[in-house]
Specification:
The protein is of the alpha+beta class. The chain has one domain. It contains 2 helices and 10 strands. The strands form 2 sheets. Strands 1, 3, 4, 7 and 8 form a 5-stranded mixed β-sheet that branches. The chain has a 5-stranded mixed β-sheet with strand order 5-6-2-10-9, with no helix packed on it.
């Protein structure tokens, strides 16, 4: 009976911790030298904050499930969670690529799941106007 108890507890332990989540934060910065308009096109959970800096800072908090740490690190290094930057002379557009939408098979063939929550810090001298952040002219 004791042996059966320990086997049950051990199997429950493996089930509980076998699908552990791995978390990591990554940061990106974008210069705004002559940028008058900023467009944010992101479907993930996004929080916009204003800050006294002169560039955009993006903090991405990622949780990864059903995979191992080395797999997760390779995905980060390959740029899976980086935003795509599209610039013109006066505008900047940040968007997600299609990389996150592609499914990943884990070690046991199970699908790896991931959540991405982003906080985007935009300089205080920009204001939301419609769907874009526009640089406010100083008078």
């Amino acid at each position: 009976m004791t042996k059966l108890f320990f086997i049950t507890v051990f199997s429950l332990f493996l089930q509980t911790y076998g699908i552990a989540q791995i978390e990591r934060s990554i940061f990106e910065a974008y210069d705004l030298d002559s940028i008058e308009q900023i467009h944010i096109n992101i479907a993930d959970s996004v929080n916009i904050e204003f800050w006294p800096g002169d560039n955009i800072l993006v903090e991405s908090n990622i949780a990864f499930y059903n995979g191992n740490k080395s797999m997760f690190e390779r995905l980060i290094k390959a740029g899976r969670y980086n935003l795509l930057e599209n610039r013109t002379s006066q505008s900047l557009s940040l968007s997600e690529g299609d990389k996150i939408k592609k499914k990943i098979a884990g070690v046991n063939g199970e699908i790896c799941y991931e959540t991405v929550e982003r906080t985007i810090y935009i300089p205080e001298d920009y204001a939301l106007s419609g769907s874009a952040y526009i640089k406010v002219k100083e008078e």
